[in-house]
Design brief:
This protein has 325 residues and is mainly beta. The protein contains 2 helices and 19 strands.
Length: 325
């Protein structure tokens, strides 16, 4: 069996590591930088009989808030009667309801109409899941600054391209692909402020583009780029590819332009992920399976199976590369 192909068929979910996060049951969050809030206990089972309320507040009254749910989303699915998370546009529970969510399908990205978003999480006394994680950040105004892309192909350009980009930007671009599909991003033009004097190993200190295979600061870091160091062709196999574009208050260049497309993985045209594999058929026994980390101490090895009906293998710790052997 080709384990490389097998791993390409695993929908691996990376948990939160170095990124700023909060798993308190309710809080008032004033955004100073992008961060995360999670249901208590995430990514292990959330707690019973919870009623948690978070108020997310942008720094300025004219700013808006953008949130993205981690694809690893797991709340009891009974028509959202018992366990659910609500997203409300406003500063309290009486605001406009964007949506009430449960089950295993993560909600779509959302942007507030004003400087507040209210998140409400409710759980009953039984039947719990892994919960949810939400990335929040200020939605940057301006042309093509901080956008989510969900179509099968598109073009991503720095603000103002091919003219010089503005100063003092922090733009987040996130491409979402359907499960099991690959994202290919190819840069046609790239020129940012160079950083030729790099003491102490630092580089790209001024204007830079950071790329992750997954959410920013969560998925594997692909690279940091500046000057004329064109990233070239970038691939993502997690279904999410993120870029964050930073500019300082001084020199500006023409920026970048990149095309992306979503397609079936090019690893093997003949390999079908839905065909039975050794792990799924039982030919490989649970005691023969090892993984880089566990979801929780109480989950036995059969949960490492890729097609487990509840969650399949989900690592409990964030590391550079997760693996199943």
């Amino acid at each position: 069996m080709d384990w490389g192909l097998l791993l390409h068929c695993a929908a691996l979910t990376f948990t939160l590591g170095r990124a700023l996060r909060s798993d308190k049951c309710g809080d008032t969050i004033k955004i100073l930088s992008p961060g995360y809030l999670t249901s208590p206990g995430y990514p292990q089972s959330y707690h019973p009989s919870q009623k948690c309320e978070w108020l997310i507040q942008a720094p300025e009254p004219y700013q808006r808030i953008m949130i993205n749910f981690n694809p690893h989303f797991d709340l009891e699915d009974r028509d959202c009667k018992y366990d659910y998370v609500e997203v409300i546009d406003g500063d309290n529970a009486e605001g406009r309801l964007w949506g009430k969510y449960c089950g295993k399908i993560a909600p779509p990205p959302l942007v507030s109409s004003g400087p507040y978003l209210f998140i409400k999480f409710v759980s009953d006394y039984e039947t719990h899941g892994a919960g949810f994680s939400i990335r929040y950040e200020v939605f940057k105004r301006g042309p093509e600054c901080s956008r989510n892309f969900t179509s099968s192909s598109g073009v991503i350009k720095s603000p103002g391209f091919p003219e010089k980009y503005p100063n003092s930007l922090e733009c987040t671009y996130i491409i979402f692909a359907p499960k099991m599909l690959e994202i290919i991003l190819e840069f046609e033009s790239f020129e940012l402020e160079p950083d030729s004097n790099t003491p102490g190993g630092a580089f790209c200190r001024y204007d830079r583009l950071e790329i992750w295979d997954g959410f920013p600061d969560v998925g594997p870091h692909i690279g940091r780029y500046c000057g004329q160091n064109n990233p070239g062709r970038v691939r993502s196999s997690t279904g999410i590819l993120s870029m964050v574009f930073y500019t300082d208050s001084a020199i500006a260049k023409e920026g970048f332009s990149a095309n992306y497309s979503v397609s079936q993985s090019s690893v093997s045209e003949d390999f079908q992920c839905m065909e039975p594999l050794g792990m799924e058929s039982g030919e490989i026994h649970s005691d023969q399976i090892t993984v880089s980390s566990q979801y929780s101490a109480i989950w036995s090895s059969e949960r490492s199976r890729l097609n487990y009906p509840e969650n399949g293998w989900t690592p409990g710790e964030d590391s550079i590369r997760e693996w199943i052997q």
